[in-house]
């Protein structure tokens, strides 16, 4: 173990029920015994979160995502307005079939009775704020995910893929380990980089670097080319290395998913409760770029997204559309034509994933972070010896 963590004490004090004292920009969530930045206060909307119907199976076996309001809009043909992004003239759909096509191709989504068209122009990190007149503005993130083989779920994070809905104990055990590891990271980043971490950032680091095994944060990228690469690589367990995929059969397709997620938070600052003074701009707590906390995620254009459960449950009703493109060199060679085609890296076989990372400039993180995460893993195994077996079998 290196000398990076000897002064990191808050996590152990919190685990033992002690008061860590002054934690700088963090406050202690007494129920979870974990550090939180004050701006992570979760503001649940009045009336709760919207309901998502999830994936629906169409005649012929094709799946389509039914986010909040989608079933009511298309089944009953109930729609308010078609809203285009400001300063973009995308043209209104001519009929319901055109509206359905726009939804099926990932060019728009229903929200609160209206249909919103996604912008054609590229925005920073694929985040765009919609400003419907007379309504509260909201922000969407368009992320991508690549699957090298057919998989039963799209949204379910790795830590929840073997947990059945309502199964509590395995998840609580994971959250104890995750809470301890994120508390270590929060204090370490504050001391080493003078940088406080949000919860989603801390868990995203653990997820992105396989520090404690599976987590409940989903990795997405805002660069569709990165998603294509992940869809064409078979990774080795607990490793960033792998080989270009060999297609096993005619049904062994590679998929790229586009996922439109609504950011949860408030656009207007809130008055701080006593004893604090002033106003606070609430931060999104379900979507956050990892580029500011890990160089590898920056180069892979990585985002962490939370709020999903087993069997593609959308706990907060934030997923507004999911679009899938399938590719197979023999049975569906044109499957990715609509998203720019198959990248040249497919022709690099038998180059390894490490070689592809070098060609794309996806260099590994600095040694200080690698050392820090190694220390965090050792501290976790020391505190939770049984978790090492879980990690190795993940």
Commentary on this structure:
The chain has helices at residues 10-15, 70-76, 96-104, 169-193, 199-208, 224-231, 295-299, 353-360, 367-383, 385-392; strands at 26-29, 34-37, 54-57, 63-66, 82-83, 108-111, 114-117, 127-130, 138-147, 218-221, 233-235, 242-244, 254-262, 270-271, 279-280, 287-289, 302-305, 308-309, 313-314, 319-327. The chain is built from ten helices and 20 strands. By secondary structure, the protein is of the alpha+beta class. It has one domain. The strands form eight sheets. Strands 8-9-13-20 form a four-stranded antiparallel sheet.
List keywords for this structure.
single chain, three-stranded mixed beta sheet
Task: State the end-to-end CA separation.
Answer: 23 Å
Secondary-structure element order, as H and E? HEEEEHEHEEEEHHEHEEEEEEHEEEEHHH
Helix content: 25-40%
Mean pLDDT: 83
Per DSSP, what share of the residues sits in E-state strands of 2 or more residues? 15-25%
Summed up, the helix count is: 10
Spans of at least 5 consecutive residues whose pLDDT stays below 50 are 346-353, 359-365
What structural class do helix, strand and pairing data support? Answer: alpha+beta
| Number of domains as seen in the coordinates | 1
Characterize the overall form. globular
Q: The biggest beta sheet, please? A: 4 strands, antiparallel
Q: How many DSSP-defined strands? A: 20
């Amino acid at each position: 173990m290196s000398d990076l963590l000897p002064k990191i004490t808050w996590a152990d004090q919190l685990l033992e029920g002690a008061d860590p004292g002054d934690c700088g920009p963090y406050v202690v969530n007494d129920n979870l015994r974990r550090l939180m930045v004050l701006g992570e206060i979760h503001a649940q909307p009045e009336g709760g979160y919207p309901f998502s119907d999830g994936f629906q199976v169409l005649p012929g076996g094709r799946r389509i995502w039914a986010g909040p309001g989608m079933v009511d809009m298309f089944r009953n043909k109930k729609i308010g307005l078609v809203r285009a992004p400001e300063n973009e003239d995308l043209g209104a759909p001519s009929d319901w079939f055109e509206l359905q096509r726009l939804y099926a191709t990932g060019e728009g989504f229903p929200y609160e009775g209206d249909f919103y068209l996604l912008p054609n122009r590229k925005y920073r990190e694929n985040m765009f704020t919609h400003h419907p007149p007379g309504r509260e503005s909201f922000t969407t993130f368009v992320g991508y995910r690549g699957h090298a083989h057919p998989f039963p779920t799209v949204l379910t994070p790795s830590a929840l893929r073997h947990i059945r809905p309502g199964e509590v104990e395995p998840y609580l055990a994971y959250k104890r380990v995750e809470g301890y590891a994120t508390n270590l990271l929060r204090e370490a980043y504050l001391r080493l980089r003078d940088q406080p971490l949000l919860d989603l950032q801390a868990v995203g680091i653990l997820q992105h670097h396989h520090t404690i095994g599976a987590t409940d944060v989903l990795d997405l990228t805002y660069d569709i080319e990165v998603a294509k690469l992940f869809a064409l690589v078979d990774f080795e367990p607990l490793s960033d290395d792998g080989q270009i995929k060999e297609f096993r059969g005619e049904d062994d397709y590679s998929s790229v998913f586009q996922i439109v997620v609504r950011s949860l938070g408030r656009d207007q600052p809130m008055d701080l409760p006593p004893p604090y003074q002033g106003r606070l701009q609430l931060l999104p707590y379900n979507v956050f770029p990892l580029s500011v906390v890990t160089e590898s995620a920056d180069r892979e254009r990585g985002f962490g997204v939370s709020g999903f459960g087993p069997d593609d449950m959308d706990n907060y009703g934030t997923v507004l559309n999911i679009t899938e493109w399938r590719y197979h060199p023999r049975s569906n060679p044109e499957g990715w034509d609509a998203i720019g085609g198959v990248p040249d890296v497919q022709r690099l076989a038998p180059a390894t994933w490490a070689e592809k990372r070098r060609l794309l400039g996806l260099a590994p993180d600095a040694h200080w972070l690698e050392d820090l995460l190694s220390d965090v893993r050792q501290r976790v195994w020391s505190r939770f010896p049984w978790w090492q077996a879980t990690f190795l079998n993940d």
